Target: HD-GYP domain-containing protein
Amino acid sequence: MDELGRKDHITFNHSSRVAKIAMFFAKELGLSKKERQMLEVGALLHDIGKIKIDGAILKKSGKLTKEEFDEVKKHPLYGFEILENWGISKVISQLALYHHERWDGNGYPYGLAGEEIPFLSRLLSLADTLEAMTGIRPYRKPFTWKEAYIEIDNNAGTQFDPQLVKEFLKCMEKKELLSIIPSL
Ligand SMILES: [Fe+2]
Model:
């Protein structure tokens, strides 16, 4: 994490905020302590593969070229390889591998669909997206909480597991969620 923090502080802050959101959600869903621990570590490390991607691409403020985006799309696989090398639990390395898969099969790296995507990865993708939309980035204005809520609702059944979206939106309606996210 330190290495990623030095190279890319946006990813570092992003990951800690994603972990907080994911933990809140997991608790509301009543997940076991073991699952929550796996999810927390996986959320903190899900973008670790970005350390293998050129910093100039990660920090680019304009639109990425197709080649650059193809490179960025390798970070789940890179992350999986790094975590496998560490000998870390498969549940955690799979969180890195599958966090950009989509319910409708249009995600990456494999285009898995529906329940082919592990449950915790489907959950992480909601936390990841909420942070990505509402967090501060140099290249765009953040979504308001309400805009993010509507966007996530609109993507139920396409990007996200529709059942999980229902539960996630209930979490977003709770004020505590906003207050526990570390500020940027
Ligand atoms: Fe990612």
